[in-house]
Each structure stands twice: as C-alpha cells, then as structure tokens.
Amino acid sequence: MDVRLVQLAAGIDPAENRELVDARLGALDPGAQLVVLPEATMTDFGPTDLDLGRFAEPLDGPFVELLAGHARRLGSTIVAGTFEPSGDDLPFNTLVVVGPSGELTATYRKIHLYDSFGYRESDRLTAGELTPVTVEVADRTIGLMTCYDLRFPELGRLLVDAGADTFVIPAAWVAGEGKLHHWRTLLAARAIENTVNVVATAQGGRRYTGHSLVLDPSGSIVVEAAEGDETLSATLDPAEPGRTRATNPSLANRRIAPRGART
C-alpha cells in the first residue's frame, strides 16, 4: 500500500485551511492508496478560550466535501481531522475517512481527551464512544487513533484484536520539553507491541512537534519529517506484519485474554 503523509500547520480560519488543504492535496499525483492529514486540519485548536463549537461542521460540510473531491481525483482514501457537532454544547474531535469514490466510509471520534500537561481538552470537546474503529484500505485493516490516544496501549490492543495490521494516527502533538521523545517512543511502542505498521501524521509549525512518521511492525522508522510543511511517501508491504509476527509472536503468546474472548 502506497501512503502519503501531509504534514501542515492549520490556522483557525476554516476557509483558509481549506485553501491550504486544496493546494497540498492538489500537488499530489494519483497513485497512493492512502493519504493522511493531521488532527484538527479543518480548524486548529487555537487559544484555549476559543469556542471550537463555532467551527464544527457536519459530516457533509465543506471540509469533507473538499476531501471527497480530492479522494475521487486521486483514487485514494483520505483521513483527516475535523470538529463535528455532537448535539451537545461541546463538539467531537473527529477523524473522517473518505474513500476513493468520495464517499464517507468511517468516522472516529476521539476517545481520550487531552486532559494533561496543564491543559483540559474535555472543557472544549466531547469524548467519543468507547468503540474501536477499523476500516479496510487496499487489503489492509486500518485502526484509527487520534493524538493523545497514543498514550493508552489498551486502545491499540482493542484495534489489533479487531483485525488491524496498521495504525493510522493523526495528531496535533503539542511541543515542549521531552514531547518529541514521547512521540517517537510511544509510536514505536505501539508498533512493536502490536506488530503493526504505524502511519502518524502530525501538525507542524511552532506550536506542535511535527515529525510525522511511518514505522514498520518492528518499530523501525521507515520515513520521518522535520518540523515544517512536508509530504512523506512510503510503501507498506502487506506481508510484513505476518513475517514480523512469525518471528515475534507476542500477540499469540499472550496469557491475559483479550476482552470478550472466552477463557
């Protein structure tokens, strides 16, 4: 599976962000089966007192419509981060998955809100249901996470038990002391412990770490961005997770049964 990671720095004006996304996706040639943009691509989080509900769009809104047009042109599945009305005061932090036909094929509403490092995302957003989300792309089973979800290995286990052989993780990983180390280390840990490929696209710019990454199922870095705007390319071998699991059968060797499994 050929993948593209589009690292960018979004602002808080949805129209300007659509122009940015239109330009970045418009620069891509057809051929990739999967294109991944960061968390909060539709609108950045902005200042901590910014009402994100003002910017939330329905799943048939202009941002998803823009993605759909590019998905059809490219023949690709596109994953990107939005804010979606929840029916409550606080919107969802949502990943949308748009297939090559332009149809919305899946959504994932972020489960773990970033109440950490002195910040409370739960004051601004509504958490999604505790249900792992997978989607089929080019004979791969993609498991979806968003940013802070990365710090919760149990979600990775639920995804791999649902059949995922690849994790796709859009993020807006806030910069700070030790944060890039955490980012790389946790991505590698999720790859190694679950023997999956990891495709992680982060926002860049001054506020965020950047360093979008693709990792193989042994946790080795295939390709990595720097801090600024960048588009990465990688090819994932569909047989690689199986080869890695044959050498390192840690999933098969588990003695604590997956949740819901018979013992």
Explain what you see.
With 263 residues, the protein is of the alpha/beta class. The protein has one domain: Carbon-nitrogen hydrolase (Nitrilase/N-carbamoyl-D-aminoacid amidohydrolase), CATH 3.60.110.10. It contains 5 helices and 14 strands. The protein has helices at 14-26, 62-74, 153-161, 179-194, 240-247, and strands at residues 2-7, 34-36, 77-84, 92-98, 104-109, 115-116, 119-120, 134-137, 140-144, 166-171, 197-202, 213-215, 221-224, 230-235. The strands form 3 sheets. Strands 5-4-3-2-1-14 form a 6-stranded mixed sheet. Strand 9, helix 3 (153-161) and strand 10 form a beta-alpha-beta unit. Helix 1 runs parallel beside helix 2 (62-74). The longest helix is centred in the last third of the chain and has 16 residues, at 179-194. The model has no long low-confidence stretch (mean pLDDT 96).
Protein traits:
six-stranded mixed β-sheet; 263 residues; Nitrilase/N-carbamoyl-D-aminoacid amidohydrolase; hydrolase activity; alpha/beta; 26% strand
